[in-house]
Write a structure and sequence with these properties.
- The structure is a single chain.
- This protein is α+β, with helices and mostly antiparallel strands.
- Helices cover about 25% and strands about 35% of the residues.
- It is built from three helices and six strands.
- The chain is globular, with a radius of gyration of 15 Å.
- The two termini are about 15 Å apart.
């Protein structure tokens, strides 16, 4: 079992349709929470651009469907990575936020694995439904 000792962990996957998926786990100390981010794009560079650019950049496709003929392959990979990640972190929370209502509906299936749906109000007044799990 590996030990987690950094604030960000990321990994690329080549999907069967030729696209790339990047999964990122990022840690925020002030609230003791790990966030999971998933991006699917045609190239690794587009995945990185989407993650690293500001929200208003034209390279960001936050909330847009980018997986072509993807099926459930990416979701199964993401679920398996999430369950593996849970095994290596302790005394923290994991929070998953969908970029669209469609993704929020998909993420509700995480309730089977102990996640709870919560409404979070951010500093800018936006309210989002998120899936959270306390890891002890």
């Amino acid at each position: 079992m590996r030990k987690v000792n950094r604030n960000t962990m990321d990994k690329f996957f080549k999907l069967s349709n030729g696209q790339y998926m990047k999964i990122i786990f990022s840690y925020k100390n002030s609230i003791n929470t790990w966030f999971m981010t998933i991006c699917v794009a045609d190239t690794k560079r587009k995945c990185n651009d989407c993650i690293n650019k500001t929200e208003n950049s034209p390279k960001v496709f936050y909330g847009k469907a980018t997986g072509k003929r993807l099926g459930v392959e990416a979701l199964l990979i993401a679920k398996n990575e999430l369950l593996d990640f849970e095994k290596v972190v302790k005394n923290t929370k994991i929070r998953i936020i969908g970029a669209s209502d469609r993704l929020n509906n998909v993420y509700r299936y995480l309730k089977r694995y102990g996640y709870e749906e919560k409404e979070i109000t951010y500093n800018d007044g936006k309210v989002k439904n998120v899936m959270c799990k306390e890891i002890v």
